[in-house]
Design goal:
Blueprint lengths: L1 H23 L7 H18 L10 H42 L3 E9 L7 E4 L12 E3 L5 E8 L4 E5 L6 E6 L6 E7 L3 E8 L9 E4 L11 E8 L7 E7 L9 E5 L3
Antiparallel strand pairs: 1-2, 1-12, 2-5, 3-4, 3-12, 4-5, 6-7, 6-9, 7-8, 8-11, 9-10, 10-11
Helix pairs in contact: 1-2, 2-3
Length: 260
């Protein structure tokens, strides 16, 4: 019985190592933080396999409780690895985007969010040492603007989500007069653009981009498209709703874009 259990433990360890190797495929060597995290997780999981051993009926309840906790810990670690893998894929797409568009920037992982649900900010894993500064644009792995840097430390920075109520960005519409206006976040769930000249012709689905009139934000970064007109009779300017193509809850990595 002990020999059979020991063999099962060996098979279990080999299977885990196989899974670990499959996870490593395609991860760039530069992402050492991801490799280290996965290595630590696998050591923990292999350690758990040692608790599967024969015993008497008196040990059954204690062993069952131990395995239940081990299983819960394993599920949490799997979620961590899943997020890390998503971040790695996103970082690869960011590199492709930067190389394909000729933009200068630096990629970083999303490592935290604001504890206050009414404030839409998140923290990224790059900071002043990487050339990040307050006011710079932050884009998704597809090159769409998702926020602006509002605070910087040596190795991290805080990004204000463009949907946050305190977010303002100078934007323009890709129409004939290249209409300009101010883009504001709406309670963390949407975007509104106002102060658009009243006589400028607008249509649904027109693309909205950065205007390039802010010192640290390059022009022509996509933001979203027009979805609704909310201008009221007598208003001096037009106001519109903008829809971003980004699912913000899925963002695991971003790029800070430089102006030159």
């Amino acid at each position: 019985m002990r020999s059979r259990t020991s063999s099962a433990g060996v098979v279990f360890r080999v299977a885990l190592v196989g899974i670990f190797l499959m996870l490593l495929i395609g991860i760039p060597a530069s992402q050492t933080w991801l490799l280290q995290g996965m290595s630590t997780t696998m050591k923990t999981i292999i350690g758990w396999s040692s608790v599967i051993r024969p015993g008497t009926s008196d040990d059954a309840m204690e062993e069952n409780e131990r395995l239940r906790h081990a299983n819960a810990d394993l599920l949490r670690q799997v979620e961590v690895l899943k997020t890390a893998m998503q971040a790695s894929d996103s970082l690869k797409r960011i590199d492709t985007f930067l190389n394909g568009t000729g933009r200068r920037g630096i990629a970083g992982a999303v490592i935290g969010y604001s504890d206050d649900p009414s404030i839409k900010t998140f923290t990224i894993s790059i900071g002043q040492q990487s050339g990040v500064a307050v006011g710079m644009a932050v884009v998704s792995d597809s090159g769409v603007m998702v926020g602006k840097i509002i605070a910087v430390r040596d190795t991290t920075a805080v990004v204000r989500d463009i949907r946050d109520s305190q977010s303002t960005i100078l934007a323009r519409i890709e129409n004939e007069p290249r209409s300009q206006g101010v883009l504001r976040g709406q309670r963390g769930i949407g975007l509104t653009m106002s102060f658009i000249p009243r006589d400028d012709r607008l249509e649904e689905a027109m693309v909205v981009t950065t205007s390039g009139t802010e010192a640290l934000i390059p022009p022509n970064i996509p933001i979203g498209t027009i979805t609704r007109f909310i201008t009221q009779p007598g208003d001096v300017f037009q106001t519109i709703d903008i829809l971003s193509p980004i699912k913000f809850s899925d963002i695991t990595a971003v790029a800070v874009v430089f102006t030159s």
